[in-house]
Specification:
4 helices, Hypothetical Protein Ychn, Chain: A, 30% helix, globular, alpha/beta
Length: 126
């Protein structure tokens, strides 16, 4: 049985708030089930790791809970968040611009290695 869930947010667009709830909610549930869970934000979704972005986004209009609240809930449950390194250049960010819940920056080789070489990891992409 797999011990780790790797969630890759690559096609999830922060401009579409309704797309943002499921990955963070499922990450939280998997962590509560005591799986090791990592979320890597890349491409347009990498903006979610920038301070100030997720606080302004909502899954449903009128909801009091922001996307950042979902990220904080997941982090508190044990989910590890990482930003893909090309996002720093793409969005003119530095590591200082990343939210406190973001553990760091990973590259493409890291993702490929996790997917191809770690038999204990299952992958979901959004």
């Amino acid at each position: 049985m797999a011990e780790k869930l790797l969630i890759i947010l690559v096609n999830t667009d922060p401009r579409n708030g309704e797309e943002l709830g499921a990955p963070f909610f499922q990450a939280t549930v998997a962590a509560a089930m005591e799986y090791e869970v990592e979320v890597v934000c890349t491409a347009t979704a990498g903006q979610l790791m920038r301070k100030g972005v997720a606080e302004k986004l909502f899954v449903k209009e009128g909801s009091p809970k922001s996307v950042y609240d979902f990220i904080k809930d997941a982090h508190e449950a044990g989910v590890v968040f990482n930003c893909c390194s090309p996002n720093l250049d793409l969005f003119d960010m530095s590591e200082d611009d990343l939210i406190p819940e973001c553990s760091g920056v990973v590259g493409g080789a890291y993702l490929i290695e996790q997917v191809m070489e770690d038999d204990e990891t299952r992958v979901l992409t959004y």
